[in-house]
TrEMBL record, chain A:
Protein name: High-affinity nitrate transporter
Organism, scientific name: Ceratopteris richardii (Triangle waterfern)
GO cellular component terms listed in the entry, alphabetical order: plasma membrane
Keywords (A to Z) from UniProt: Membrane, Transmembrane, Transmembrane helix
GO molecular function: nitrate transmembrane transporter activity
Domain of life: Eukaryota
BP terms from Gene Ontology: response to nitrate
Keyword Metal-binding: no
InterPro entries per UniProt: Transptr_NO3_Nar2
Spans through the membrane: 142-161
Pfam families referenced in this protein's UniProt entry, alphabetically: NAR2
UniProtKB/TrEMBL annotation, chain B:
Biological process terms in GO annotation: nitrate assimilation
Name of the featured protein: Major facilitator superfamily (MFS) profile domain-containing protein
Cellular compartment(s): Membrane
Keyword Transmembrane: yes
Length: 171, 577
C-alpha cells in the first residue's frame, strides 16, 4: 500500500486557477517486490458523495467498466521507491465534485499492478472539493437577451404592422 | 352598304376586345363562381368596351348590359383584388391542391408545405438540442439522474397543454400567425438555456422550449387547409415525419457544433455547449420570420380577410368538446399514440446518453448513432401512413386497425430486446428496427384518426396529439428518472408497457366497418351516415348543420374494403333530394 498526500485550500480548489500539490511514495509498511513497477499514473477520482444519483460515475470492480476515476493528473511518471511530487493546475473541464487522488502503478506491459489513494477504502473520508468554472460570461448573457428581444419585437412589429395596414386599406 | 360596313367594323372591334374573356361572356353564372378572379379583368374590360361604344351607337346596349352584371359582382369582391388567379397545382372547388410537387416552393400550397414542416422541424431540434450535450451539461451544472429525468419529462410536458390550446388559436388567428407566435415566443427560452447555472433553471428552460412542439397542430391544420382530402393523409404524414427528423438531427448536429466551438474556436467545454445552443434558437427565429413573410393561411388569402366574409360555419365549442370527450375511441388512440410517438420522444431524450455511458462511445459518435433513431422518420412515418391506406383498400378499416396493432406491438417487442442486449452492433440493428415499427405505428394512427369523428375532428386530433406527448412524460417519469433501475432495465420495461398499452386497440369497433376481432354489424342501421349523424341532434339536423358530415360519410364508403354495398348509396341520394 502507498501513501498519497495532497494540499488544498479550505474554500475548494478553483478549476483553471488553483493547483493541486500531490506527493506519493511507497509505504514504509509495505513488504512488496517492486521490481516490476515501472510507471505511476495519478488520477483524480470521484468520492462517494459525488457518485450518489449519478450512475455515470459508478464504481465497478471490473476496471474496464469502472467510471470512478475520470481525469488524469499530469502525465505518467517513472516509478521510484522514494516517491515523487507534482504540482498540477486544475483544468477547466473538471466538474464540481468531491474528489480524492488515486495512484496506479503499471508494469512494463501497462497492466495495473498496485494502487494507493488519498481517501479511505470506502472513498468517504479525506475528500477535497474542486470548484468548477460556471461557463457563463456576461457577453453570452447579453447576446441571449438581445436575440430574445429581437425575436419578440419582430413578431409583435409584424403583427401590428399587418393589422394597421389592412385597417388602412379598408378605411 | 355604308351602315353594314360600319356594323362590321363595330363587331370587329367588339370581338377583339371580347376574345381574351370569351368564357366570362358565355356564362355569367360561372363568372360568379370564379368571382375572385374577375375584378381586374372586369374593370379592364370596361375600358375596352368604352372604345367600341364611342365608335358606334348600334352596339351600345349589349356591352352596357354585360358591364352591369360585372358591376354587381364587383361590389361583393372589393377585398379580393390582391388574390392571385392561377395556381401552379391542380385544385379542387375550395382551391385546395389535389397534387403535391415536392421540389417546388410555389405560392401558396407548396410554399406553405415547406414552411410548415421546416418550422416544426426547427422546434423539434430546439426541444432536443440539450439531450446529446447532457454529458457536458450534467458536469457543468452538477445534475443528478433525477434532475436529468425531470428535465427530460419537462421538455415534452409543456406541449401537452400547448397542443390543446393551439387548435383553438388556429381557428382564431389562422395557422400562419399561430405558428409564428409559438416559434418566436419560445425562441427566448432556447437562448436562455445558454445562461442556466442550476438544475432548476435547466428544467424551466427545457419546459418552456417544449411548448414549441405544438407546431404539430399548426402544421396539420395548415396542411388540411391547403390540400384536399385525397392527399391530406400523405401530406400530413410527410410533414409530421420530416419534422420529427428534427429530433434525430439535433442528436447528430449539436455535438458537431459543440466540437466546432471547442476545438477550432478554442472555447472551454463549459462555454462551448452554451454557445452551441444559439444555433437552434437562430434557426427557429429565421423559420418564424419566413412563415410571417412568405406564408399565407389559405389558398385564397389570409385568415383575417376571409373570416370577415363569414365563410366559416359556426359550431358550438361545448358541443364539439362534448362529442370529442365522450367518444371512447379518442382515449384509446390517445393512449396508443402516447406509446408510439411518445416513446419516440423518450428515446430521443435518453438514447444519446445511453450510448455514451453504456458503450463508452465518444460524445459525437453517441450523437450520430442515437440520431439514426429519429432520422428513420424520413421514410418510416410516411410509410406507416401508406401501409394504412394500402391495407384499407383491401380490408377497409379492419385492415387499418390490424396494421396499427401489428406494427406497434412488434415495435414494443424490439424495444424489450433493445434493453437486453449489451453488444454495440446488435443494439444498433435492433434500434433501427424498433424505430421503423414505432414510427410507422405513429403514421398509421393518423391514418385512422380522420374517421373517428367529423364534427369534433380538430379537438380529437389535438387530444390525441397531446396524448402522444403525455406518453413521453409518463415513460420518462416511470422508467428513466428513478435511480431504482438502470437505463437498460428501463428500456426493456418500457417495451413491455408498449405491448400492454396497444391491447385496447382490439376493442375499437365501428358498427359499419367492424373492429379487429369482430366483423361489421349486419344490422340495417350500421351505415356511415348513421355513425356520423349520431353527433348531431334532431334540431341541429333541421338547421342543416349536419350536411358536411353527410357528405363526408359518403366519401368514407371506401373503408368497407372490397365489399361496397350499392343499396345504401341510393338511400343517401334520397336524403340529398
Amino acid at each position: 500500500m502507498w501513501e498519497c498526500n495532497f494540499l488544498c485550500t479550505s474554500t475548494g480548489t478553483k478549476a483553471g486557477a488553483d493547483e493541486l500539490f500531490v506527493t506519493w511514495a511507497l509505504s514504509s509498511a509495505a513488504q512488496v517486490d517492486d521490481s516490476s513497477y515501472k510507471t505511476v499514473e495519478l488520477k483524480l477520482c470521484f468520492g462517494v458523495p459525488s457518485q450518489i444519483d449519478r450512475p455515470w460515475r459508478k464504481t465497478n470492480n471490473v476496471l474496464s467498466k469502472d467510471k470512478t476515476c475520470g481525469f488524469n493528473i499530469g502525465s505518467p511518471q517513472p516509478y521510484n521507491r522514494a516517491g515523487n511530487t507534482i504540482n498540477w493546475l486544475v483544468r477547466k473541464e473538471i466538474p464540481f465534485a468531491h474528489y480524492f487522488v488515486r495512484a496506479y502503478v503499471l508494469d512494463s506491459a501497462g497492466e495495473k499492478v498496485a494502487y494507493g489513494q488519498s481517501s479511505n477504502a470506502q472513498r468517504t473520508s479525506n475528500l477535497f472539493r474542486i470548484e468548477a468554472i460556471s461557463g457563463r460570461h456576461a457577453s453570452i448573457d447579453i447576446a441571449a437577451a438581445v436575440f430574445s428581444a429581437f425575436s419578440v419585437i419582430s413578431l409583435l412589429g409584424f403583427f401590428f404592422y399587418e393589422k394597421t395596414s389592412t385597417r388602412g386599406r379598408k378605411a | 352598304m355604308a351602315k353594314r360596313s360600319s356594323n362590321n367594323l363595330d363587331t370587329a372591334v367588339l370581338r377583339e376586345s371580347r376574345s381574351p374573356d370569351v368564357k366570362f361572356m358565355k356564362s355569367p353564372e360561372a363568372a360568379g363562381d370564379q368571382g375572385m378572379e374577375l375584378p381586374d379583368q372586369a374593370s379592364g374590360y370596361a375600358h375596352r368596351t368604352s372604345y367600341s361604344v364611342a365608335s358606334s351607337e348600334n352596339t351600345v346596349s349589349i356591352p352596357n348590359l354585360q358591364f352591369k352584371q360585372f358591376e354587381q359582382e364587383q361590389s361583393e369582391l372589393e377585398d379580393d383584388s390582391e388574390s392571385e388567379a392561377p395556381f401552379s397545382l391542380p385544385v379542387d372547388s375550395e382551391n385546395k391542391a389535389k397534387k403535391i410537387k415536392f421540389f417546388s416552393a410555389a405560392k401558396p400550397h407548396m410554399r406553405a408545405f415547406h414552411l410548415s414542416w421546416f418550422s416544426f422541424f426547427a422546434c423539434f431540434m430546439s426541444s432536443f438540442a440539450a439531450a446529446p450535450l447532457l454529458p457536458v451539461i450534467r458536469d457543468n451544472i452538477d445534475l443528478t439522474k433525477q434532475d436529468i429525468g425531470n428535465a427530460g419529462t419537462a421538455s415534452v410536458a409543456g406541449s401537452v397543454l400547448s397542443r390543446l390550446i393551439m387548435g383553438a388559436l388556429c381557428d382564431i388567428v389562422g395557422p400562419r400567425y399561430a405558428c409564428a407566435f409559438l416559434v418566436m415566443l419560445t425562441a427566448p427560452a432556447v437562448f436562455s438555456m445558454a445562461s442556466v447555472s442550476t438544475a432548476a433553471g435547466f428544467l424551466v428552460s427545457r419546459f418552456c422550449i417544449g411548448f414549441s412542439l405544438a407546431t404539430f397542430v399548426t402544421c396539420q391544420y395548415w396542411m388540411s387547409s391547403m390540400f384536399s382530402a385525397e392527399i391530406v393523409g400523405t401530406v400530413n404524414g410527410c410533414t409530421a415525419g420530416w419534422a420529427n427528423l428534427g429530433g434525430g438531427a439535433a442528436l447528430f448536429i449539436m455535438p458537431l457544433i459543440y466540437h466546432l466551438f471547442q476545438h477550432p474556436l478554442a472555447c472551454d467545454s463549459f462555454v462551448a455547449w452554451r454557445l452551441a445552443m444559439f444555433v437552434p434558437g437562430m434557426v427557429q427565429v429565421a423559420s418564424g420570420l419566413m412563415v410571417l413573410y412568405l406564408g399565407q393561411d389559405l389558398p385564397d388569402g389570409n385568415f383575417r380577410e376571409l373570416k370577415e366574409k363569414g365563410k366559416q360555419v359556426k359550431d358550438s365549442w361545448s358541443k364539439v368538446i362534448f362529442y370529442a370527450i365522450t367518444n371512447s375511441k379518442t382515449w384509446v388512440f390517445a393512449l396508443a399514440y402516447g406509446y408510439s410517438f411518445g416513446i419516440e420522444l423518450t428515446i430521443d431524450n435518453i438514447i444519446s446518453q445511453y450510448f455514451y455511458d453504456r458503450f463508452s462511445l465518444p460524445l459525437h459518435t453517441s450523437g450520430v448513432v442515437a440520431s439514426v433513431f429519429g432520422l428513420m422518420n424520413i421514410i418510416s412515418r410516411p410509410f406507416g401512413g401508406f401501409l394504412s391506406d394500402w391495407s384499407a383498400q383491401r380490408l377497409g378499416m379492419r385492415g387499418r386497425l390490424w396494421t396499427l396493432w401489428i406494427s406497434q406491438t412488434i415495435g414494443g417487442l424490439f424495444c424489450f430486446l433493445l434493453g437486453r442486449l449489451d453488444q454495440l452492433g446488435p443494439v444498433i440493428v435492433v434500434m433501427v428496427f424498433f424505430s421503423i415499427f414505432a414510427e410507422a405505428a405513429a403514421g398509421a394512427t393518423f391514418g385512422i384518426i380522420p374517421f373517428i369523428s367529423r364534427r369534433s375532428l380538430g379537438v380529437i386530433s389535438g387530444t390525441i396529439g397531446a396524448g402522444g406527448t403525455f406518453g413521453a412524460i409518463l415513460t420518462q417519469l416511470i422508467f428513466f428518472t428513478s435511480p431504482a433501475y438502470s437505463t437498460e432495465t428501463g428500456i426493456s420495461l418500457m417495451g413491455i408497457m408498449i405491448v400492454c398499452c396497444t391491447v385496447p386497440i382490439m376493442g375499437i369497433y365501428f358498427p359499419q366497418w367492424g373492429g379487429m376481432l369482430w366483423p361489421p354489424s349486419k344490422s340495417r342501421n350500421a351505415t356511415e351516415e348513421k355513425y356520423y349523424l349520431s353527433e348531431w341532434s334532431k334540431e341541429e339536423q333541421e338547421k342543416g348543420m349536419h350536411l358536411a358530415s353527410l357528405k363526408f360519410a359518403e366519401n368514407t364508403r371506401g373503408e368497407r374494403g372490397r365489399r361496397i354495398t350499392p343499396s345504401t348509396t341510393n338511400a343517401c341520394a334520397v336524403t340529398y333530394a
